[in-house]
């Protein structure tokens, strides 16, 4: 198997019937980028920048962030690099930010909600990202969006930062793509509206599953209820992809589900454009995509989505898809 996976390097991620997708890697620390390149990732679909802020006692400066983003952008060359703005809160604690203790941190003061309230911290990060955009194919992504107003406000802040950089004669990509994570069910349901105002979606299934099933993603006692095969979760994913495509934007996924071998065939059938995953899964995912036909998967998609339970969905996939690959 190892040899077969090695052979996947340099090959396209294309289905048996000629449908091409992009398989990218998720990164947190700088070392992760080397693993994405080693595993022939076609880009980075999620750079979790909170790691630049964690395990230290003060904010990273604009210069420190700029260097980090630039190094990754340069290593990737023309391949896309989606940089997610600070996703603090939830299970990601940054003590020096002094976020008060909350009863429900996953539903609390976090991510884009924090950044819009603390515009200086946000602007510093956006300046660093925009400056680095002169050195590669960078895209900006906002986490934990729940309301279109947050998108508008975030874009307005980016515009202001761009204006400032222009005045300082600092180069950046004027046409940088701005996208959002779809990880709150309300956004999936309302995705047609969001798609009109952003350049791309990236579905964050880790949170989307937790919020749509009301199951804390880190709570061991209820982990059996956290299920990516839940038909409602699959419907939310399909809805997001369909609505994105109706408005002409690309749709990716950077939650764990993007690398789930049993779900990749369904995501291909739904038309997902970009799969971003842990770099150790990239070659396996490519191998799988090259061995399935999108049209064949499309022909069973409706039947799968109409099954009543997660167990039924998983069983159907095991019996009808996995066995034939
Ligand atoms: C997600 O929620 O699916 C995601 C990719 O973001 P994180 O795991 O960093 O919350
Ligand atoms: Mg998330």
TrEMBL record:
GO terms for molecular function: kinase activity; metal ion binding; phosphoenolpyruvate-protein phosphotransferase activity. Mg(2+) binds at residues 183, 207. It is found in: Cytoplasm. GO terms for cellular component: cytoplasm. The keyword Coiled coil applies. Its EC number is 2.7.3.9. Residues 4-292 form the PEP-utilising enzyme C-terminal domain. Its cofactor is Mg(2+). Phosphoenolpyruvate binds at residues 48, 84, 206-207, 217. The active site is at 254 (proton donor). One of its GO terms (biological process) is phosphoenolpyruvate-dependent sugar phosphotransferase system. It catalyses: L-histidyl-[protein] + phosphoenolpyruvate = N(pros)-phospho-L-histidyl-[protein] + pyruvate. Keywords: Coiled coil, Cytoplasm, Kinase, Magnesium, Metal-binding, Phosphotransferase system, Pyruvate, Sugar transport, Transferase, Transport. It comes from the Bacteria. Belongs to the PEP-utilizing enzyme family. General (non sugar-specific) component of the phosphoenolpyruvate-dependent sugar phosphotransferase system (sugar PTS). This major carbohydrate active-transport system catalyzes the phosphorylation of incoming sugar substrates concomitantly with their translocation across the cell membrane. Enzyme I transfers the phosphoryl group from phosphoenolpyruvate (PEP) to the phosphoryl carrier protein (HPr). This is Phosphoenolpyruvate-protein phosphotransferase. It comes from Tissierella pigra. The chain holds residues 246 to 570 of 573 of the full protein.
């Amino acid at each position: 198997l190892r040899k077969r996976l090695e052979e996947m390097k340099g090959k396209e991620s294309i289905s048996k019937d000629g449908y091409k997708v992009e398989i990218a890697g998720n990164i947190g620390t700088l070392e992760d980028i080397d693993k994405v390149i080693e595993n022939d990732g076609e880009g980075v679909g999620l750079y979790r920048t909170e790691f630049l802020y964690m395990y230290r006692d003060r904010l990273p400066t604009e210069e420190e962030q700029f260097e980090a983003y630039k190094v990754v952008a340069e290593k990737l060359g023309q391949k896309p690099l989606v940089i997610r703005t600070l996703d603090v809160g939830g299970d990601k604690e940054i003590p020096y930010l002094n976020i008060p203790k909350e009863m429900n941190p996953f539903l609390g003061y976090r991510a884009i909600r924090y950044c819009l309230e603390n515009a200086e911290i946000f602007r510093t990060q956006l300046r660093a990202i925009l400056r680095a955009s002169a050195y590669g194919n960078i895209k900006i992504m906002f986490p934990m969006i729940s309301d279109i107003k947050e998108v508008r406000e975030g874009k307005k802040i980016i515009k202001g930062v761009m204006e400032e950089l222009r005045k300082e004669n600092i180069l950046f990509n004027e046409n940088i793509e701005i996208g959002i994570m779809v990880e709150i069910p309300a956004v999936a349901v309302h995705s047609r509206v969001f798609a009109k105002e952003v350049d791309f979606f990236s579905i964050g299934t880790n949170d989307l599953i937790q919020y749509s099933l009301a199951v804390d993603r880190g709570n061991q006692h209820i982990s059996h209820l956290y299920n990516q095969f839940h038909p409602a979760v699959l419907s939310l994913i399909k809805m997001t992809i369909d609505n994105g495509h109706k408005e002409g934007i690309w749709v990716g996924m950077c939650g764990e589900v993007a690398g789930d071998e049993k779900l990749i065939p369904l995501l291909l059938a739904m038309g997902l454009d970009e799969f971003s995953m842990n770099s150790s899964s990239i070659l396996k995912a490519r191998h799988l995509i090259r061995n399935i036909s999108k049209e064949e998967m499309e022909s069973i998609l409706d039947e799968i989505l109409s099954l009543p339970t997660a167990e039924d969905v998983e069983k159907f996939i095991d019996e009808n898809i996995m066995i034939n690959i």
